[in-house]
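Sanity check. The docking grid for zinc ion depends on where the pocket ends up, so I'm generating a full predicted complex first rather than guessing from homology. Inputs follow.
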Amino acid sequence: MEYKDETTSISGSWNLGQWHWKHETAVLMQHFLASLKDKKVLGLKCPECGLVYCPPKPYCSCLSIPEEWVEISDEGVVTTFTFSGSWSYGGMEEGAGTPRIIVGVMLDGSNTEMLSQLEDADRDHVDVGMRVKVKWADEPQGTIEDVMHSLPA
Ligand SMILES: [Zn+2]
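Predicted complex below; grid placement will be based on this.
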């Protein structure tokens, strides 16, 4: 990929009020989450450019509407990572002081990333390009939690 150290600006406006989306994000997510109960990861493929979105997205960066569900792998590569010592959200706090490895993962067959907590890994050996796999629960519940944890592959 060629890197350009310049910015291009195009003046104008788009009337997005004329657009009618065929899919609602909530409907797409329901289908995506339901497949997780069977330990299947689905992506949504764009008919125009072929990009596969996982998690699904109701529109593509080429402005077409992804419509084809495709099964993708539960293994992929780390695209980015960071380390966290604790987290709190909405009054909840978990494991303060517990080291965590948070990774961006692009599953094989997808062109987009998901966030995941990498487990059973040595933080000194985590790197971009590292192979990982989804850590499935024995009985997935059909929630995003089903794919929020990963293991080295
Ligand atoms: Zn597209």
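Relevant for the grid: Strands lie at 41-45, 52-53, 68-72, 75-84, 87-89, 92-94, 100-107, 114-118, 131-134, 149-152.
Also worth noting: DSSP finds one helix and ten strands in the chain.
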